[in-house]
Design goal:
By secondary structure, the chain is mainly alpha-helical. The chain has one domain. The protein is 88% helix and 0% strand. Helix 1 (2-27) runs parallel beside helix 3 and helix 4 packs antiparallel against helix 5. The chain is globular, with a radius of gyration of 16 Å.
Length: 123
Amino acid sequence: MNLLLVILGGAVGAACRYGADRMANSYIGSNLVGTFSVNILGSLILGFVVGCALYKTNWNQDYTLVLGVGFCGSFTTFSTVTVSSVQLISNGNYSKAAIYLASSIIVGLFAAFIGILIAKESF
């Protein structure tokens, strides 16, 4: 049953990720914005899920599997951040790569912290 929950969450997360990338590419013309956006939103969601698991006494661990492992696991992607950064560096865009990497990590950490804080204050 646990594997099915992860698969279900993963399928939805992957579809949402694909849609966000397509929208960012269509409207902004950059996959970097799509990747950055989903990673920050995913960090917020995962922070909230972890916060709920920590602070909500009747939290069902199935939610963690569906939302945390499945959805966030396929919605967010560290590998795309690193590959995009390598591509930027290869094209000589050193400052853009540094800003992209640093902002992804710093804003992602902040979003995860906010998600945990929201969960803690909600219960």
